[in-house]
Design brief:
There is one protein chain. The chain has a two-stranded antiparallel sheet. The protein has 5 helices and 2 strands, in the order H-H-H-H-E-E-H. It folds into 2 domains: about 70 residues, Winged helix-like DNA-binding domain superfamily/Winged helix DNA-binding domain (Arc Repressor Mutant, subunit A), CATH 1.10.10.10; about 45 residues. By secondary structure, the protein is mostly helical. A hairpin with an 8-residue loop joins strand 1 and strand 2. The longest helix is centred in the last third of the chain and has 44 residues.
Amino acid sequence: MTDQLSKVFAALADPTRRDMVARLTRADATVNDLAAPYDVSLQAVSKHLKVLEEAGLVSRTREAQRRPVHLEAEVFDLMTKWIERYRRQAEERFSRLDSVLAAMDTDNATQQQEGTAS
């Protein structure tokens, strides 16, 4: 599981591949469709797609003469679960820190009042 997760994050480290994934969220596309906005060769786009495919983010099917690229959304569930676990842990740490800071503020206010009362 972690191995696939590493491949996914590595694949998404490249801004061109992230953009391709974002575009595939709207609809399947051919290599030509995906290459259109970039000033790179079809071979370069195919290499990007190969990385995305090896990470399990996309798959290719055959429809007559077309070979559309399809986004495999289930992989995002794996990423989301991993991120969510650490987000919850971070929120718990921040909550504990907020409690400590609130207690310190209360202690400081009490000390100031006691100092003023003398």
